[in-house]
Amino acid sequence: MSSHKIEAIARATGLTLLGDGSLTVRGAAEPANAEADELALAMSPSYADALRGSRARTAVVWGEIDLQEFGLEAALVASRPRIALAGITAAFQHQSDIAPGIHPSAIVEQGAEIGEGAAIGAFAVIGAGARLGPGAVVGAHATIGSEAVIGDKALLHAGVRIGARCKIGARFIAQPNAVIGADGFSFEPSDPASSARAAGHDTASDSNADTRKWLRIHSLAGVEIGDDVEIGSGACIDRGTIAPTRIGSGTKIDNLVQIGHNVQVGRDCLLCAQVGIAGSTVIGDRAVIGGKVGIPDHVKIGADVVIAAGSLVAGNLAGQAIYMGIPAVPRMQALRQMNMVRRLPELATELARIREKLGL
What we know:
360 residues, alpha/beta, CATH 3.40.1390.10, UDP N-Acetylglucosamine Acyltransferase, domain 1, nine-stranded parallel sheet, 15% helix, flat
């Protein structure tokens, strides 16, 4: 972990410096556990007691404090703690341990282009005609398919899979075992009568159950991802059938998210763990989708939408609103429904009294 002067951290993060800016710290820690050469993160008054008993000489604090009272020699004032935390953790982020160049065990196939300063780890495979931008890092056992394009300063952790002909922008980050560009889950029954939807019935016919077959609709397109996108561990983004699946610039996707074929996700969206989005759905810019939200195929989600964790979307959702529930409805409507459900035992008891009184 690299060391930094407090004054340098103040400049990089825009925080107000108190005390001696020439002090050097090698990392950050909680106040109770901070050593003398670590930056204690005490960004709330609730940490005051722990900070007084800390061995730290420097701290990030919640406001203008008396350094002597807390035994500090320097401090950084954070009016917005989470914003400050983003800058501070970036300063102490561990750098890749993969040296620039190509590891002897890696395979770079004919026609692949490797940008200046790129690093390719052990047993990685770069397909024929693929292009890797300057400063990109490819972790151990990662694979990049033929004719795929990866932008500048991308970071692919161990085991990442990028399919053929996928196009990914600059500063992309994929956590271990993310898969981008697998075939979409697209099948059609050979006998239309076996499909409840095709038959227009609530139940499917089983008259041809012994001969039913699923015909694969092949995924001929790729995946296109903008700049500054991050993908979590185990997340899967399927390639499009004819047109590409697209992820807008700045979007962040958590672990174990599934994005189906032909889905279009806008810019600066946030998709939390275990979200599932079925094929051909369109999601507007800056949408925030909570964990375990399920979204069916061919629906449209407007821009600036928030969908609460655990919700199930049943149809199109207008933009600039908060939705929750099963099915997902506007927040206030969902809360009213929840209150009504909580009252059901009381109402059932009352109804029983009325029926008894009426002799029913």
